[in-house]
Amino acid sequence: MKDCPPSFPRCGVRWREATRHTALPAVLVAGLPSLSKGATRMSDKVLVIAEIGSNHDGDLGHALDLIDVAADCGADVAKFQSFLAEEMLAPSHPNYPMLKKLEMPRAWYPKLMERCASRGVRFLSTATNFTSLAWMEEYGAWGYKVASCNITYEPLLEYLIRINKPIIISTGMATLEEILALSRRLGDAGMRDYAFLHCVSRYPVPATEMRLRNITVLKEILPCKVGLSDHSWGMHLAVAAVALGARIVEKHLTNNKQGYSPDHHVSILPDEFSRMVQAIRETEAALVANFAPDVESIHTMRRSLHFARSMQAGEEITAADLKVTRPEDGLLPGQQTAVIGRRLAQPVATDQPLSWDLFEAEK
Hints:
With 363 residues, this protein is of the alpha/beta class.
């Protein structure tokens, strides 16, 4: 039996029940993406997370369908929200009924993970309560998402550090000091597989408030990968984030903008999500520093010295006998002064490129 998380007063029987069953086979979590800054696995590929969240609307079949949609769109990860209403709110809270409808029961997790594995995407979920966390642990989750509202939730952070699995942390409700402090804490604990996602905790976020340059700042000051959890309209700012150095992009996905979950209205539909993934892949492929010239273009587009007329052996070259035209297959234009006054050692034709072997040896 696993230990009850420290400082958590309500785990008790529910935690013990949650840790009773056998985990999924290790093959379901093999080949995991690494989040460390210097990683070689998938380090050349932006990790695209399809944030399904609660867009399943409390329907397992719909959740499985959305995993298929995420895979078809080219996502690397299908992500959900794990919570239990009774561990987040009092039953009298006005949002309690909504959260109750959207929570994911224990029986869902193996089915969701198996569907993800069969479609070649990774299952990920935001860990917000210990009971759901225990279920995911028992069924072999490879890592966890931490919402920005939980960046100061000490018992949760303490347990995630103890199990030492990859974690992805959103920063929307965190100060820069809190981000740095948590990064140092994770590093001091020996964790290397973690990442921070720049995020603005509004739904939706106007483009003028996205603060995408925060990505470049985080990239400079943190020892891990950074990315974007995008709550803006459309796909274009997610693509822009990749150009600024984001190595992880999380974007809400739905196939029904009129669904029950409040996340539907800030989600994008499958067609746009697919176009976003394609644009991300094209952008990351273009982000290469290489000053090597295109040799073929140089030969075709640059100019060199050519003869302006046919000439006979023994004739002396004048400026009127030369022209500068494409391609670059002869002496360079800057060598013209060294050619003028030289005599030909053999006949030449109009448009023939100049070369030193065409001239008599200098006396």
